[in-house]
């Protein structure tokens, strides 16, 4: 019955792809942004589902299972960061990208923000998007491979191919509209699953004291966690929230929403959804470690505790639905990442180099080739089943947050930002993150990421470089200043309506 449930889910996702193919893929605006007519409901759940990938149902419960309440501060940082993103970025980015000659991608917005159709910043930012999204996509594929290996006994590599095959199919067909609509459905599935699993698992205990007693056999108590936590550890966990400002697959949703007033509705829905699902994910890990201790359950891979609960505590029909929730989380993020990567490859590299003679139909075709190309490379990177989902996600999250996060905020709020400062900020943020992750600079050969999460120094360095370089740059052109002023006027007018 689990197989039947998953088969129905796969068919439904492909059906949405075919529907979207017939509705919105004849031009690049439709393929990349859904014609900027996406509803607030779809925007909210699409942003949430593409954000909270397989790490939500596997990585975060696994972190709670192993480390205990430390992971709770990651969740708090994410909630605060998501709320700030809705308030500070969403409304202004929606207006600014349209005022800036209808910029369709984040790299294109960066270029047009400085009134430059062609510029180094567009190529550099597109390259960074492809680099980090390939790594990010591989994290989702690892989750898919582990799902099929753990739940169905299939070979890990076979699970990778099945996961990738379905998500690439509907992304190739329907573009942004397909991705957004499937994300909406997948977000609903994730919401129900993360509310249901920890509640049912909790029923195996007489009360919370018993559950916590068993949990504390393996993880520190909350008071111990607080007393042992260092300032560096706390800052590293909360700093996950900084990443939201620079995640292309999330903020592109704000560019596609139908109006600024709709952002407020999307924020209410999105934050409610996120609060429930994050609490559900943490609760799954906490109840999971207690359950494993009480019933002497061997858990070889803590990141599969949600899968184990799905199989142990529910009948096959419900189990199939819950496994579909994991696939929903995985596929929603992979599809978003593939689409944004392909958009950058086509709009910001291919079309920029080929010139205006390239038609929209040719560019959409190249976009589909881009989806397939990034997917194949990500597949090769994910062949090692020992990869940690949360570790892969954290590296990519930090890369985007440091490279793009400060620049997005400066672009929206600093009128005299210079092009040189923007380029320097992107490069310095990305390089800082890579050095922090991979350079063995500590005496014991460890990388600096073992001391502090790399997004913290990356974000600070990028912001400082942007600010300092802007101080010594030229004043923005009249056209650039006019776009900045027009954005504020349009934003004020839409808010008043």
TrEMBL record:
Pfam families: SSF. The chain crosses the membrane at residues 6-21, 72-89, 123-144, 156-177, 184-205, 229-247, 268-292, 312-345, 366-383, 389-409, 421-439, 451-473. One of its GO terms (biological process) is proline transport. InterPro entries: Na/Glc_symporter_sf (IPR038377), Na/Pro_symporter (IPR011851), Na/solute_symporter (IPR001734), Na/solute_symporter_CS (IPR018212), Sodium:Solute_Symporter (IPR050277). Keywords: Amino-acid transport, Cell inner membrane, Cell membrane, Ion transport, Membrane, Sodium, Sodium transport, Symport, Transmembrane, Transmembrane helix, Transport. It is found in: Cell inner membrane; Cell membrane. GO terms for cellular component: plasma membrane. CDD domains: SLC5sbd_PutP (cd11475). It is a multi-pass membrane protein. The keyword Membrane applies. One of its GO terms (molecular function) is proline:sodium symporter activity. It comes from the Bacteria. It catalyses: L-proline(in) + Na(+)(in) = L-proline(out) + Na(+)(out). Catalyzes the sodium-dependent uptake of extracellular L-proline. Belongs to the sodium:solute symporter (SSF) (TC 2.A.21) family. This is Sodium/proline symporter. It comes from Paraglaciecola polaris LMG 21857. The lineage of its organism: Bacteria, Pseudomonadati, Pseudomonadota, Gammaproteobacteria, Alteromonadales.
């Amino acid at each position: 019955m689990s197989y039947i449930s998953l088969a129905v889910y796969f068919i439904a996702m492909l059906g949405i792809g075919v529907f979207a193919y017939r509705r919105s893929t004849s031009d690049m605006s439709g393929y990349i942004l859904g014609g900027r007519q996406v509803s607030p409901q779809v925007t909210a759940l699409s942003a949430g589902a593409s954000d909270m990938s397989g790490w939500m149902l596997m990585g975060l419960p696994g972190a709670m299972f192993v480390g205990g309440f430390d992971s709770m501060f990651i969740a708090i940082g994410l909630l605060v960061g998501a709320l700030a993103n809705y308030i500070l970025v969403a409304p202004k980015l929606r207006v600014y990208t349209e005022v800036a000659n209808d910029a369709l991608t984040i790299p294109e917005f960066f270029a047009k923000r400085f009134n430059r159709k062609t510029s180094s910043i567009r190529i550099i930012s597109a390259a960074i998007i492809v680099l980090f999204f390939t790594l990010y996509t591989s994290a989702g594929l690892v989750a898919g491979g582990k799902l099929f290996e753990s739940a169905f006994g299939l070979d890990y590599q076979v699970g990778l191919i099945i996961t990738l095959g379905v998500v690439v199919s509907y992304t190739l067909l329907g573009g942004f509209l397909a991705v957004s609509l499937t994300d909406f459905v997948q977000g609903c599935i994730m919401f129900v699953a993360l509310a249901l699993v920890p509640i049912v698992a909790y029923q195996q205990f007489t009360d919370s004291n018993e559950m916590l007693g068993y949990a504390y056999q393996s993880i520190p108590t909350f008071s111990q966690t607080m007393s042992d936590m260092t300032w560096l550890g706390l800052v590293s966990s909360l700093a996950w929230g900084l990443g939201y400002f620079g995640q292309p697959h999330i903020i592109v949703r704000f560019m596609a929403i139908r109006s600024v007033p709709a952002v407020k509705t999307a924020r209410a829905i999105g934050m409610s959804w996120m609060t429930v699902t994050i609490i559900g994910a943490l609760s799954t890990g906490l109840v999971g470690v207690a359950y494993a201790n009480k019933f002497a359950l061997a858990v070889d891979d803590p990141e599969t505790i949600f899968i184990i609960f799905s199989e142990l505590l529910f009948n096959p029909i419900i189990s199939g639905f819950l496994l579909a929730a994991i696939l929903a989380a995985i596929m929603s993020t992979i599809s978003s990442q593939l689409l944004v990567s392909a958009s950058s490859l086509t709009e910001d590299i291919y079309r920029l180099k080929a010139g205006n003679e390239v038609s929209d139909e040719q560019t959409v075709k190249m976009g589909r080739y881009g989806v397939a190309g990034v997917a194949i490379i990500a597949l090769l990177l994910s062949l090692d089943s020992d990869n940690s989902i949360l570790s892969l996600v954290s590296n990519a999250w930090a890369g985007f947050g440091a490279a793009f996060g400060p620049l997005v905020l400066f672009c929206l709020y600093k009128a005299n930002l210079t092009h040189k400062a923007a380029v320097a900020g992107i490069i310095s943020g990305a390089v800082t993150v890579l050095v922090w992750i991979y350079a063995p600079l500590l005496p014991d050969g460890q990388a600096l990421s073992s001391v502090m999460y790399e997004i913290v120094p990356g974000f600070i360095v990028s912001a400082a470089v942007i600010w300092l370089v802007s101080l010594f740059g030229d004043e923005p052109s009249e056209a650039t200043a006019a776009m900045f002023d027009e954005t504020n006027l349009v934003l004020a007018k839409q808010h008043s309506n």
